[in-house]
Amino acid sequence: MGEYSVWSVLKGGFTAQRHWKPAWRDPDPKPAYDALIVGGGGHGLASAFYLAKLHGMRNIAVLEKGWLGGGNTGRNTTIVRSNYMLEGNAHFYEKSLQLWEGLSQELGYNVMFSQRGVINLAHSDAQMDAYARRGNAMRLNGIDAELLSREEVRARAPMCDFSDKARFPIHGGLLQPRGGTARHDAVAWGFAHAADRLGVDIIQNCEVTGIDVEQGRVTGVQTTRGAIKAPKIGLAVAGHTTQLAEMASLRLPIESHLLQAMVSEPLKPWIDTVVTFGAGHFYISQSDKGGLVFGGDLDGYNSFAQRGNMPTVEHVIQCGVALMPGLKRLRLLRHWGGVMDMTMDGSPIIGRTPVEGLYLNGGWCYGGFKATPGSGWVFAHTIAQDRPHKLNEALGLERFETGALLDERGAGPVPGWH
Ligand SMILES: Cc1cc2nc3c(=O)[nH]c(=O)nc-3n(C[C@H](O)[C@H](O)[C@H](O)COP(=O)(O)OP(=O)(O)OC[C@H]3O[C@@H](n4cnc5c(N)ncnc54)[C@H](O)[C@@H]3O)c2cc1C
């Protein structure tokens, strides 16, 4: 019987549900571990889970400066997809999507993964051509993709503006039926729970303030809860990647930007798929609580502030109303921001660093939530074997020296444009 199952709830009915144990322990840090993961977001926790489960490394810890999932994991719009075109990205994100499909069972924790489909809208013939090309590349890689006509989009998303007056007429769209959404907090909690059960120490309120390097090799970290030694250290700190790398004297091809999202008051079921606008930065899905979740573009300047600003909210809502006029009758419930580590080519960095024993998992730009299980899976392999897995070979830091960039969007070397 699973720890979290209907049978547990029924059994608990006889004991006023007093049988539940904390989902993870709250240990004090030990003076030394075999490996440390810095960052208790989805990526750090997934990495620790797969290190323990697949590579037999149990004497490890995750160090989190605040609370689990308090970074971008708990701030994102939860869209999961693998509609990538370039070889270096496509197989990695598809592996991640395959892991999502069995994740609740693997973790023994419901991450509420909902494959409701993701539709990218096209508003011109040129955009339809680009989506046909992307869809074909995906299908050649064994990834599901369907090119939708205008009428097929209308059948799935009738709330979009299909009138003659539409400011951005819809020509069609690209659908990935296996894409969808998941419950972000549950992803962090599920990985934490499963990693803890394998013996991983998850230590919250423990900020890493320094990285110890001796003769080009990492030896441990300084934290607000004392020094901790380890021969292997993985950084998975998203928006703070540059700050942590600087502690080991590394300067990375990453800029930090702010990204916002917002949610409306709850509604009855209104939209049962994910739609992204092709003529501006706006995307929408409906949460299980009924709120419409919207995301937008970057704020446009570098920042480490974890809060949003009103001009971006206005811009997102303008795009939303242009696409779905009915939205103008809604009230916004709240909005928030997260710090994005934007790379020069828009693709993540997962691999070794020039410092022996120090590994990097970052540069997730807008899209790291969908990568959470895949990222942890390949990062664990990279740390345990001291070499990348085939799936993250193209995602190494070296590509910024060799020029083998993965510019999925074709936006050039400008982090804010990816
Ligand atoms: C508004 C918004 C919308 C998004 N929408 C999507 C989406 O729809 N789909 C998608 O795929 N992605 C999306 N993303 C991106 C996605 O959220 C991130 O790429 C992903 O969650 C990164 O996960 P992580 O575990 O690497 O980072 P985080 O969850 O940020 O975890 C990093 C952790 O490191 C900790 N940390 C930092 N410094 C230190 C230190 N010195 N010591 C110890 N701990 C430290 C932080 O407290 C944090 O908890 C969105 C992001 C935002 C902000």
UniProtKB/TrEMBL annotation:
Name all FAD dependent oxidoreductase domain ranges.
34-381
Keyword entries, A-Z = Cytoplasm, Nucleotide-binding, Oxidoreductase
Asked if Oxidoreductase is a keyword of the record, the answer is: yes
The record's GO CC annotations read: cytoplasm
Q: Where in the cell is it found?
A: Cytoplasm
What are the GO MF terms of this UniProt record?
nucleotide binding; sarcosine oxidase activity
A biological process (GO) of this protein is:
tetrahydrofolate metabolic process
| PANTHER family reported for this sequence | FAD-DEPENDENT OXIDOREDUCTASE DOMAIN-CONTAINING PROTEIN 1, SARCOSINE DEHYDROGENASE-RELATED
Name the chain's protein.
Sarcosine oxidase subunit beta family protein
Q: What is the lineage of its organism?
A: Bacteria, Pseudomonadati, Pseudomonadota, Alphaproteobacteria, Rhodospirillales
